Amino acid sequence: MTNAIVTDKLTLSYDDKTIINELNFEVPKGKITVLIGANGCGKSTLLRSLARLLQPKSGTILLDGKEISKRPTKEVARNLSILPQSPVAPEGLTVFQLVKQGRYPYQTWLKQWSKEDEEKVNHALKMTNMFDLKDQFVDSLSGGQRQRAWIAMTLAQDTDTILLDEPTTYLDLTHQIEILDLLYELNEKEKRTIVMVLHDINLACRYAHNVVAISNGKVYAEGDPEKIINQELICDVFCMNCDIVKDPLFGTPLCIPHGRGRKIL
């Protein structure tokens, strides 16, 4: 299987604190990969480094077989896009103006806004069901609409690989499913490689082809959720006891955490 991203002994740190230590993992091309792990384990840090927003202390990152640190910035931006957690748009920016920013990597002094740019922006707006809202101000949108607008911007960037840091944060359950369904559709229809951080284990299992569990700065396990998600992994990675059963709708692993609560016999 071809890989979109490969890391080799990747070490990431803030000041003298090591967050990720000699991590090796692979992102299959054309698949959905979800990073899971306890708070503070380095998932978001890893995602930022994959987008070249954080310089590694050591080790390498390969994007489509080429070392990402040695590639020109605009070249990287034409191959990989990232949506950080809870992005904020400048006040007074319309949806169209926001999505238009995704075409920046293709702009030069000689080539400014083109017909192709407009087509890509309109396609992204239609894919995310935001075309009818393109003249609305971003700060006037609901949480789900705002997140779709940001995803439209990353789509307009027209990259093969999209990174998303907790794209469902602060959204209610309906909008969480809406966003994840959209990303699943993008993968199915356009074969985009998607890497995202999710906290909900059950949604990760439902949508991911490949799950990467991070613990103690290393990959604890990676692979098909049906093969790696079990009671031992949940206990070791999240320090939580649980039962794992089969999701009655999708057949994917379903984590039922132990703990206190009402028990109806």
Helix-strand blueprint:
Layout (H helix, E strand, L loop, with lengths): L2 E12 L2 E12 L3 E5 L6 H8 L7 E6 L2 E2 L5 H5 L2 E4 L11 H6 L14 H13 L15 H14 L4 E5 L7 H18 L2 E5 L3 H7 L2 E6 L2 E6 L1 H4 L2 H8 L3 E5 L6 E5 L8
GO molecular function, one term: ATP hydrolysis activity
Subcellular location: Cell membrane
Protein name: Putative siderophore transport system ATP-binding protein YusV
Please outline what is shown here:
The protein has 265 residues and is α/β, with parallel strands linked by helices. The chain is 31% helix and 28% strand. It has helices spanning 43-50, 73-77, 95-100, 115-127, 143-156, 173-190, 201-207, 225-228, 231-238, and strands spanning 3-14, 17-28, 32-36, 58-63, 66-67, 80-83, 161-165, 193-197, 210-215, 218-223, 242-246, 253-257.
